[in-house]
Design brief:
By secondary structure, the chain is mainly alpha-helical. Helix content is 71%, strand content 3%. A two-stranded antiparallel ribbon has the order 1-2.
Amino acid sequence: MSHSSVDLVSKSYSIISDMIFTYELPPGATVSDFVLSKKIGISRTPIRQAILKLVADGIVVESENGFHVIGISEEFIHELYEARKCLEVAVVPILIAKKTDLSPLRELCRKEDECLKSGRYIEALNNDIDYHNGLIEASGNKLLVKAYKVMYMRMKLINLLSLVSLNFKTPEMYLEILDNLENGNEEETCRLLGLQQDLGEKQKIASLKKFGGTGVNNLFNFISGCFVAFDNVKIID
């Protein structure tokens, strides 16, 4: 594959990913190389290769009817948080044993808090999932990092559900987790991680229930609209 072809695949992947994560292509939507080729202005071959990469990432699925963005359901959210809890708790003893430098994670907490206070909610949520990904990466275990990638990508897909009901105390909770990690308190760190995961799961499931049934499309439209008119974002009560 030529360098230019690789660039086109990379460009296509970036564009389609953004469309998925901003719900321009919402959960369940068809991902057509033909339609996207006309929309993006890139030939179908690199777009199809980009779609296959998204399949490997776990956010696009293939069926007899073609490719679709993976759907979001209560079961989807529960299984994702269940898996994340297992993996994130598993790195706690590794981080304690290695006495890992946690300053980059503290900086993410500071940024998230700053974004929440200044109304930059989408940026805050991006910092949020980067914090969790950072815990795994800090372990230095390449297999764990690789295993977490699908979870990270799926978290990016559902993370914006938190716009419906933001938790402004999240950075404070994350700092408490880091404090316990640095003090070698494995049991308390795991308890706090589990508590935070449970709260996140309930928050996102509540978002789906609030817009239940076919009305869930209104939720995706609301979040997608945040990217069109970000200055007018309002959190739903």
